[in-house]
Amino acid sequence: MAAPMLRGRCLGRCWALACIDSGSRHGRGAATGFTSSGKRGQSFVAQQPLLTAQKSRKGEHKWAAVVGLEIHAQIASNSKLFSGSQVHFAAPPNSLVSFFDASLPGTLPVLNRRCVEAAVMTGLALNCHINKKSLFDRKHYFYADLPAGYQITQQRLPIAVNGSLAYSVCVGKKWRQVITKTVRIKQIQLEQDSGKSLHDELRSQTLIDLNRAGVGLLEVVLEPDMSCGEEAATAVRELQLILQALGTSQANMAEGQLRVDANISVHHPGEPLGVRTEVKNLNSARFLARAIDYEIQRQINELENGCEILNETRSFDYKLGFMPEPNLPPLLLYDTASLPAGADPQQVINIDRIREQLPELPSETREKLIQQYGILPEHSFALLNEVGLLEFFQNVIKETRAEPKKVTSWVLNIFLGFLKQRNLAVNESPVTPSVLAELLNLLDRKVISSAAAKQVFEELWRSKGKTPSQIVSERKLELMQDEEALERVCHAVMEGHPQVVMDMKRGNPRAINKLIGLVRKVTHNRADPTVIKEILEKQLSS
Amino acid sequence: MWARAVLLGHRSWMGWHRGFTSKTDPQGSGRVTAEVIEHLERLALVDFGSQEAVARLEKAIAFADRLRAVDTEGVEPMESVLEDRCLYLRSDNVVEGNCVEELLQNAHRVVEEYFVAPPGNISLPKQDEQQPFSHN
C-alpha cells in the first residue's frame, strides 16, 4: 500500500494506546512555533522554540494527554442563519450583507429552516439526542467584525446533545490492525459566524468585511476523549466525511468552512486532570495533529521544569456575556407522533422524516465495500479518503470482468500513485474509468502480462486518445498465444545452455530463473513468466 | 456616569454575583473585592476609579438583592415574553443583500468597500498599572 494515500489516517505510531513518555523525543517533527491567531485579541499559546525533551533522568513518570475539540462547520445553505443574504465564498466586500447582518437598528432575526434541518441531520448522524425544545442566546463581546456586539448562539439548551463519533486508528506493524475509537459529542448548536477582519498594521486600522457575518455555523463540541494529535486529526477527518456525505457542510478547511479549536491538558495517569490551554483556529488538517502534539509536549516540558501551565482564556470562561435572545421564541421540533394536526408543513420540522431521509454515512459505505467486494478494511478507508476515488473505483468495477481485488490493487497503488506523484485530483486524471477497465480486461484475459500492463498504463497517462488495445498492438506487447512455439523456444534455450540445465537438475532454485530470463529475452518479453516456468519444468522432467 | 455603569454591568453581574456570594459570603454583606472590580471593568468597559463609585456599586447591589425576598420555589423562570409564540421558519432563498453603497453610507470611514475600525482590541492595563481616577 503506497504511503501517500494514508493522508488523514492515524499512522500507527500513534500514542493513543500508550502514555507519552516524559523521556521520549517528540517524533512527529513538530512545528517550530506557531501563532494561534487569537480570537478577540487573546494569545493563547506562547510562542516557544521547540524544546528537545530531557533525558529520562527527571523521573520515569509517564504523562497522559487529554484533548477536547470545538469544531465550527459552516452550514451549506443558500442564505444566512437569520437573514436572507447570500452565503458565498468569494464576493466583493460587503456585497452579501443585509441590514440585519450590518446590525442596523430595527432589524430582527428570522430563522432559516434549512439550517435547522442541517443541524437535526447532523445530530442524528452523530447519534445525538435531538432536543425537541431548544433556545437561542446572545453571547456578548466587543469586536469590530461583530457589529451587533453579540453573537446569537445556543448555549443553554442546544439543538442536539450526547452523541458519539466513531473513528478508526491503525496500529501495529504495517498498520494492518484497525481499531475503532469513539469520542463523545457533548452538544451541537446553531450559531452565527462573524465577519472578517483584515488587519492593516501599517495604517493602524482594521478593514471589516461582513459578507461572512451571520452565516450559519454548526458548533460540534467533542469531549476530551482523545489523547494525541493524530486521534484528534482522525476524528476531525471522519466528521468532515460525515458532513460532506450529509451535505450539511462542505467542510473544506482550506476555505474556512471547518475550523477547529483544541483544548489540551496533560496529567499523570491516576491523578486529576491538568490545567487546560486552548489552541484556536486550526484550519489545516495537516497542521492540526502537529499543533496539538506540540502543545502537549510544551506542557510536559513546562511541568517537568517546575513551571505552571497558564490559562489565559479563563477570564472568558465565566459565561457572563450570556443572556437569552429576546427576539426568538423557543425552537420546537416534532416527530411523527407529536406532529400537530393541520400544521403548515413549511413551519414544522419532523425529526422522524429527516431520519428516514438520511443518506448513507461513510462507515456504512465502507462496510458495504468490504461485504460486496471482499476488500480489506484499510483499503475501504483509502477509497473514501480521496475525493472522487470511490466513484472512480466503482465505475471501473462496472466495466471490467477483473476481480475486485485486482481492481482495488490497481486503483489504490498504481492509479493513486500516479495521481499523487503529479499532485492531481481524481477528476484531473487523464485516464478515465473506462480506459482503465479496458486495460484490466486485457490483463484478465491474459492478452498481456502484468509488467506489460504497467507499461501500457504509463503510455495511457502520457498520450491521451489512445486506447489500451492500440498501445498493445503498436508496441507489440501481446503475450505469445502459440504454446507450441513457446515450447520450441524453451527447448532451444535449454539446449543452448546445458550448464544451467545441469544446475537445475542438481536442484539449484536460481537456475530456473536464469532460464526464464533467457526465454523472455528471446520472446521479447511477450511470454508469461509463470507459463515459461511450467513449460521448462515439464520439459526437464520428461 | 456611575449610574449608567451600574446599569450596564448589572444584569450580567447578577448571575455571577449570586454564585460568588453563595461561595464566599452567605450573609451577602455586599463587600466587593478589588478582583471583582477589575473583572467588572473588563466586561463593562467602565472605570470604577474611585472609592465612592465602589461604595455606590455596593449599595446598588444590595438594593437589587432585595429581589431575593420573593419566593420562587418551583416556578419556571420566564426567558422571553415570546415563549408561547411560534418561531417562524424562513425558506432558504436569497432575498437580501447587494446594497453595499447604502451600508457604507453609514460609515465614518471606508477604504474601498471595507468598513474601517480601530486596530484590534485594546486590552485594559492591570489594576496596579492603572492611573488613579481624578475624581472631581
From TrEMBL, chain A:
Localization terms from the record: Mitochondrion
Lineage: superkingdom: Eukaryota
Keyword line: ATP-binding, Ligase, Mitochondrion, Nucleotide-binding, Protein biosynthesis, Transit peptide
Annotated PROSITE patterns: GATB
EC nos: 6.3.5.-
Catalysed reactions, as listed in the record: L-glutamyl-tRNA(Gln) + L-glutamine + ATP + H2O = L-glutaminyl-tRNA(Gln) + L-glutamate + ADP + phosphate + H(+)
Pfam families documented for this protein: GatB_N, GatB_Yqey
SMART domains listed in its UniProt record: GatB_Yqey
Location of the Asn/Gln amidotransferase domain: 391-540
Role, per record: Allows the formation of correctly charged Gln-tRNA(Gln) through the transamidation of misacylated Glu-tRNA(Gln) in the mitochondria. The reaction takes place in the presence of glutamine and ATP through an activated gamma-phospho-Glu-tRNA(Gln).
Subunit structure: Subunit of the heterotrimeric GatCAB amidotransferase (AdT) complex, composed of A (QRSL1), B (GATB) and C (GATC) subunits.
Similarity field: Belongs to the GatB/GatE family. GatB subfamily.
Name of the protein described by the UniProt record: Glutamyl-tRNA(Gln) amidotransferase subunit B, mitochondrial
Species: Felis catus (Cat)
Lineage of the organism: Eukaryota, Metazoa, Chordata, Craniata, Vertebrata
The encoding gene: GATB
Automatic annotation (TrEMBL), chain B:
Protein name, per record: Glutamyl-tRNA(Gln) amidotransferase subunit C, mitochondrial
UniProt entry keywords in alphabetical sequence: ATP-binding, Ligase, Mitochondrion, Nucleotide-binding, Protein biosynthesis
EC number: 6.3.5.-
Taxonomic source organism: Felis catus
Class of this enzyme: ligase
Family as reported in the entry's similarity comment: Belongs to the GatC family.
Known catalytic reactions: L-glutamyl-tRNA(Gln) + L-glutamine + ATP + H2O = L-glutaminyl-tRNA(Gln) + L-glutamate + ADP + phosphate + H(+)
Summary of subunit composition and partner proteins: Subunit of the heterotrimeric GatCAB amidotransferase (AdT) complex, composed of A (QRSL1), B (GATB) and C (GATC) subunits.
Cell compartments where the protein resides: Mitochondrion
InterPro entries tied to this protein: Asp/Glu-ADT_sf_sub_c, GatC
Role, per record: Allows the formation of correctly charged Gln-tRNA(Gln) through the transamidation of misacylated Glu-tRNA(Gln) in the mitochondria. The reaction takes place in the presence of glutamine and ATP through an activated gamma-phospho-Glu-tRNA(Gln).
